[in-house]
Design a protein that fits this description.
- Pfam families: HTH_3 (PF01381).
- One of its GO terms (molecular function) is DNA binding.
- This is Helix-turn-helix transcriptional regulator.
- This protein is an all-alpha fold and 123 residues long.
- The protein folds into two domains: 72 residues, lambda repressor-like DNA-binding domains (434 Repressor (Amino-terminal Domain)), CATH 1.10.260; 35 residues, no CATH class.
- The chain contains seven helices and no strands.
- The termini are far apart.
- The model has no long low-confidence stretch (mean pLDDT 82).
């Protein structure tokens, strides 16, 4: 197995990225990608470039001997949902709404509790 493939596998594992995602982003058949990532099939320069691009990196990133995979915990909470790729504008809007909901979940839940209590008092 090449250094490139070892590093890609380490990155995928640490970042919890599925092969299916890479296959969809690159257009590489799932079975072929599996063979490449297990070292059964040699990886071409074209496939190396596609895989690196799908992960938002350059080929050189995965060729380093001193390869260091970022930890997911090092990402800002607002961006962790999109560590595997760039979101579309609509996805970013949805994520921001979800984040806003989560930031205010205590208020939402306490409001629900107050409404339930009011309705029970009126019966």
């Amino acid at each position: 197995m090449t250094k490139y493939i070892e590093n890609v596998n380490a990155y995928l594992s640490q970042m919890k990225i599925k092969q299916t995602y890479i296959s969809l982003k690159t257009g590489i058949d799932k079975n072929k990608l599996s063979r490449i990532l297990t070292g059964t099939q040699d990886v071409s320069a074209t496939d190396m470039e596609k895989i690196a691009n799908a992960l938002g990196k350059k080929i050189e990133f995965f060729l380093n001997d001193t390869f260091c995979v970022p930890r997911i915990m090092d990402f800002e909470p607002e961006k962790i949902s999109f560590y595997a790729g760039e979101p579309t504008q609509k996805q970013e809007q949805i994520a921001n709404k979800l984040l806003q909901l989560m930031e205010n979940i205590d208020e939402v839940m306490s409001a629900k509790y107050r409404f339930v209590n009011i309705s029970e008092d009126n019966t």
